[in-house]
Amino acid sequence: MRKTLIAALMTSACLSMTCAQAQAADLIQVYQQALANDAQYASARAALAAGMERVPQGMAGLLPQIAASGSNTVGNTEQIIQNQGGNKITSPSVHVRTNSYNLTLSQPLFRWDRWETYQQSKLAQAIAEAQFAQVQQDLITRVAQAYFDVLSAEDNLGATRSQKAATTEQLASAKRNFEVGTQTITDTHEAQAAYDLVVAQEFAAINDLANKRSALQTIIGEAPTTLSPMRTGVTISAPEPAAIEPWVSSAEEQNFSVVTAQFNVESAKRDIGRNRAGHYPTLDLIANTGRTYSSGGGTGNGNNNNAIGVQWSVPIFSGFAVTSKVRESIALENKARNDLESARRNASQGARQAFLGVNSGLAQVKALEAAEVSSKSALESNQLGYQVGVRINIDVLNAQKQLFSTQKDLSKARYDTIMNGLRLKAAAGTLKETDLVPVNALLDR
What we know:
Structural class: alpha+beta
Order of helices and strands: HHHHEEEEHHHHEEHHH
Shape: elongated
Radius of gyration: 40 Å
Largest sheet: 4 strands, antiparallel
Strand content: 5-15%
């Protein structure tokens, strides 16, 4: 009867799991949700759109500037005449209207500061693009990490509940054996202590799972559905190339933090030239056309004014402001160079750590898979020994605990190895959305 009940429960559980997995979301689907709803990614996309406007703004300083101006005035004019006798004679008031307009064009011919500003604007746009690419990579790793954190928490909860079920059965067995006098009260107390401990661990696992799902919800903007779990017995690929040097070299040149720092150095160089231009002369082409027309007293007259020429200016002294700005920009360039070196070192360290993490994780997964097989055999042996009286209750409880702990460590090692593989590509600056496809293939969809 007991075996029939267990078989029915297992069949029901399998059917429920099949239905849940049929509706489960995989890693690609969760990533698509993050693309649409993640606030950090949306902010970066807006920052990129703003950065794309820097080039038109920089170009504007080199293009012609055209301005129109005009005036329309109305007034009264009185003419005062003094005759030979010293008397003043005032003529009747004349109503006068004056209209004028001017159209002015100014085309820079030599403005070195504006040229440097234009070059800086192109670098600013490149920086915005590199920063957005960095955010894209961060989104991939954040989504994958949050996804696997949920799976790890689910595995932890599942293993804890399995351990609870096994401990419950062992506690019941110890109580029965004590009642019939085949075992001492010590076995019952040991089983009870193990049961109480696993109940506390279950509450902690439930809370941890809720926190991990909340973290994923922060990224995708809605409560996550059931997630596709990892397939059993998956094989995780080793990094290609298998040597660490190509990864480090790529990180020192292609990592987006390094690329951004390189653009900042170039921009700092341009800033030096822009500030030094404060000592240089400027030359502009000026063209102007205008008309002034006045009417009053039944008469009217107008003037047309047209002019074209060049306008130049030579700075002589500005209170040492230009010299100070040049010194400031030189210091900022030195800072940018040191920031670049720091970015390269950090990228190199990140690549090394991720590469070692992948290889260490692969070895750890292999060792834990063997340990899982050994733990299952040990549990079966202890259960059989307990039945025949050569093992005590605590031996079975320890064997159960060892097996479930090994299974939790194995699942976590797999997730960590996969994440280190993604971080390795991110450090090298080569991580793309397509890199999620082989990871997604490891899931049971």
